[in-house]
Structures are given as C-alpha cells and as structure tokens.
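Note on ligand handling. Small-molecule inputs were canonicalized before submission; formal charges were left as drawn, and no protonation-state enumeration was performed. Where a ligand contained multiple stereocentres, the stereochemistry in the source SMILES was retained. For zinc ion, this procedure yielded the string shown in the input block below.
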Amino acid sequence: MKPSLHHKLLNGYFEDPCLFIRILREKRAILFDLGNINRLKLSDIYKITDVFITHTHIDHFIGFDTLLRAILRRDAPLNIYGPSNILSCVEGKLKGYTWNLISEYPSVINVFSYNGRSLTHSVFRAKNSFKKETVGRSKSDGVLLKDPMFKVKASALNHGIPCLAFSIEEEFHINIDKDLLQKKGFIVGPWLTEFKRILRKKTVEDMILNIDGKSYSISQLRDIAMITKGQKISYVTDIAMSEKNIKKVIQFVKDSDILYCESYFLEKDRERALERFHLTAKTCGLIAKKARAKKLAVMHFSPKYRNCPDSVIKEAMEEYSK
Ligand SMILES: [Zn+2]
Ligand SMILES: [Zn+2]
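Structure output:
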C-alpha cells in the first residue's frame, strides 16, 4: 500500500517536538506542534495550511514567526488549532509587530480553540492589520478538521495546563490495481486522481469520467480500485501521568499505525515526571502497547539524558514489546 500521508519529525530527541505531515498528491502539508521549523525548506513551509498546537510552552510554539513570515503573501489561509489559550497566544504574537503596510496582502489566519466541548473560531486578516475578529462558537466532538481525504481529531488532556493530543486518519485508502488497469486497456494518467477524488464522495455510481476523449461511468471503472482502511497517525506529548489522562489517551490513539509519543523522563525519575506533568518512557511504552499501536516513535527527551538517549529508547521499547 502506498501511503497518502508522509510524516517525519523535524528535530532530534532533545530538540523541539514537531511533526511534519505531507498530504501526497496535494501540494499541502500540516504540522503537529510548531517548535523550531528551520530544518524545513522554505517551499515546504509554504505548503503548510493547518497547524495543530498541543499547548503553547515555548518549545511547541516558537516556530510561529518563521511560519508567519513564509505565508504572509499567500492566498491560502493558515488555520491554527490549539487549546483554550491559543487565541490569546496568536493575538499576542501578532501584536508584537507593526502592520501598517500589508493592507494589500491576501493572508488570513483562522484560529480555532478547542476546550474539550466546543470550538471557538476567530480570524485575523492582513487587510485589517491582523486585528482579531470573532466568528463564533460551535459544539465539537473533537473533530477539528474534516477533509474529503482525512480527518484530524483532538483529545483534551492535562499537562498542569490544558494540552491536546492529535490524530490524523485517512477516511480510507484507495489502491489502483495496475494489472487490471492494463488489461482493460487504460493508461495511467491524471484521470486517476480525479477518479479517486470522485470515489471519496458518497454517491458516485452514476458519475461520468472522461478518459482520453471517451466517457465512462464510475461503476464501469469501480473494480480497478481496491479500498482498504486508511492510515492513522497519532501524536501525544506533554501530558501528566494521571490515571484519567492515560485511560483517555489509550482510547484516543487506539490502533494507530504509528504513535509519536513523548518519553520525557526515565522511570527512575518518576517523581520528577509527576512534578513536571510529563510521561516517563515506560508509561509511553505502556500506552503504545495498550493502544495496540503498530509502531511507536519516541520523542521529546529531557536534556538530563543527553548522554544516554539509548536508555530512554530502551525503556520505552521494552515496555511496548512486553
Ligand atoms: Zn515540551
Ligand atoms: Zn510542555
């Protein structure tokens, strides 16, 4: 199966956590957390349309200025999702600059804050000198973004302050049976992208697709597509080891194809982990195991283990594979 979502951590174990996800075949990308993004090429930063912030500690939000600068003249809006205080944090960042010469710029920043029950939407437009405009509030079950191809969900957790965990799930995955395609006399081309786009809609059988000047109904083509369960990628960081958090997060990341999870402290420093509202590597492994995650990617280690990152990885992986 050729995945549609390409994901990679931008930084090392001891640097800012930040997951970059490319939506293949759409010139578009999303970010989970906005720490230092300087390792991204400018062309990749430009593709970012949606950013999901777990919480606004500096290591998770310091990349805002780099991103803002890259998209300042872009037509496509930037959407930022985060916990309750995200709106005042974005507003504060924007207030840190003077905006008298941008009234011709098209850029728009939508900010959505999620408190576990509802989603509040505000907007900042360049043409309005990035002054806050309130759009409204609606009830939310945690689905922050619904796209025809995927959805991004949040779970409201606790890190001494409100903190969100995220997952991105493909609705379903479409693979093309290339042998059957050839047998039927079709040639691979851009029409396949359109075909997949139509399949993602619900009622498709009577739709007509034009291939090399000939018309075909979708039902004539349907058997070249193999539909399987889509990818699920989850991202959990900076959460307290309370029973409530752990129970909730296991449920949230259930059956992920890959779970990115913090391993901030070693189990021998459990007391410190409790004080700082972080997970230990062992608890990270336990969450991945109980959630039956197919793969675990550990991240975000305390600098105190700078000389022994392998011991953090080992502790998490041993618990995961028990
Ligand atoms: Zn952190
Ligand atoms: Zn934090």
